[in-house]
């Protein structure tokens, strides 16, 4: 029997891999011997992870594209399978976040966020699942958030989108259990990434305080009074990609430094 956390030689398709949590997951997977297909609409930071993966001796391909484009997503998933073989694990890491007072939201603000966070997860999952179902195996890992479990000031669209991602995860778990496929979500708390820096800046501006003060206020919400490192979330993704999680599906796993206890 393979080691429980063994993912050597699998093919992982990771969206949002250019930076932040997606990049940390790519790095962790490469260290564990997985072959990678990296997909992001931005590629300015991809070179680092590509070099790292190549130095580790795993295969790595990458493509610039938007998770909201059905054509680009389908083309990338096909390219991943042509170049690396069947996709074993899909990580839906791409996402966006905004701080906006509820009464200031425009429909465009609302729709764009839902399009990336929810429709993007739907489209990438559908393209991968069309292939996974033919093989009777596969794992979907969705980056949700503690925002999918609670309410937050100034982030109505983001929190609604992450509640939707958790709901979508559960639906995939139900619909594809008989196909040997699992779907689980990760719900991080505050992770030290460019996205979170934007949250701090946006909340500080709306609240009329400086960013250091805002960061202190936000960190007080965690029992551990700190930001998480992207690598910490990547450890949970490794578990979900590995045989150790074979018996889990439809779950939303919180990793928050003690902000949320569910
Ligand atoms: N940082 C946090 O505190 C935190 C907490 C909970 C959940 N999350 C979630 O984790 C995921 C990653 O967050 P992060 O902090 O690393 O963010 P980030 O902004 O640092 O990285 C997100 C990546 O997604 C890419 N992306 C955005 N829109 C895209 C699109 N339409 N098509 C393709 N790629 C796109 C970006 O280019 C970027 O490389 C997101 O889903 C986010 O909501 C983050």
Element order: H for helix, E for strand? EHEHEHEHEHEHHHE
pLDDT < 50 runs, ≥5 residues = none
Q: Can you name the CATH architecture of the largest domain?
A: 3-Layer(aba) Sandwich
Instruction: Tell me the total number of β-strands.
Output: 7
Q: Helical region count? A: 8
Number of domains: 2
**CATH fold-level name of the largest domain:** Rossmann fold
- Structural class per helix/strand content? alpha/beta
Query: Into which percent range does the helicity of residues fall?
Result: 40-55%
N- to C-terminal distance: 32 Å
How can the largest sheet be summarized? 7 strands, parallel
What's the mean pLDDT score? Answer: 97
Strand order in the sheet with the most strands: 3-2-1-4-5-6-7
What small molecules accompany the polymer chains? nicotinamide-adenine-dinucleotide
Please give the radius of gyration in angstroms. 18 Å
Task: Outline the structure in words.
- There is one protein chain.
- With 262 residues, the protein is of the alpha/beta class.
- The chain has 2 domains: 205 residues, NAD(P)-binding Rossmann-like Domain (Rossmann fold); 36 residues, no CATH class.
- Helix content is 47%, strand content 15%.
- A 7-stranded parallel β-sheet has the order 3-2-1-4-5-6-7, sandwiched between helices.
- Strand 4, helix 4 and strand 5 form a beta-alpha-beta unit.
- Nicotinamide-adenine-dinucleotide binds next to helix 1, helix 4 and helix 6.
């Amino acid at each position: 029997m393979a080691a429980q956390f063994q993912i050597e030689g699998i093919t992982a398709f990771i969206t949002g891999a250019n930076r932040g949590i997606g990049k940390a997951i790519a790095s962790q997977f490469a260290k564990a011997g997985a072959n990678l297909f990296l997909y992001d609409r931005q590629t300015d930071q991809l070179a680092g992870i590509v070099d790292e993966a190549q130095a580790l001796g795993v295969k790595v391909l990458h493509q610039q594209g938007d998770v909201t484009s059905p054509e680009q997503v389908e083309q990338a998933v096909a390219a991943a399978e042509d170049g690396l073989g069947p996709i074993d694990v899909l990580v839906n890491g791409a996402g966006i976040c905004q701080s906006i007072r509820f009464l200031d939201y425009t429909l465009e603000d609302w729709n764009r966020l839902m399009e990336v966070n929810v429709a993007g997860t739907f489209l990438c999952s559908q393209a991968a699942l069309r292939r996974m179902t033919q093989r009777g195996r596969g794992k979907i890992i969705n980056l949700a958030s503690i925002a999918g479990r609670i309410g937050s000031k100034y982030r109505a669209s983001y929190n609604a989108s992450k509640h939707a991602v958790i709901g979508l995860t559960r639906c995939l778990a139900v619909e594809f259990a008989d196909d040997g496929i699992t779907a689980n979500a990760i719900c991080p708390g505050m992770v030290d990434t460019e996205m979170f820096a934007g949250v701090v800046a946006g909340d500080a501006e709306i609240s009329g305080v400086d960013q250091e003060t805002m960061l202190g206020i936000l960190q007080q919400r965690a029992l551990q009074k700190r930001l998480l490192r992207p690598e910490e979330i990547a450890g949970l993704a490794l578990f979900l990609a590995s045989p150790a999680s074979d018996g889990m599906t439809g779950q939303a796993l919180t990793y928050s430094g003690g902000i949320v206890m569910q």
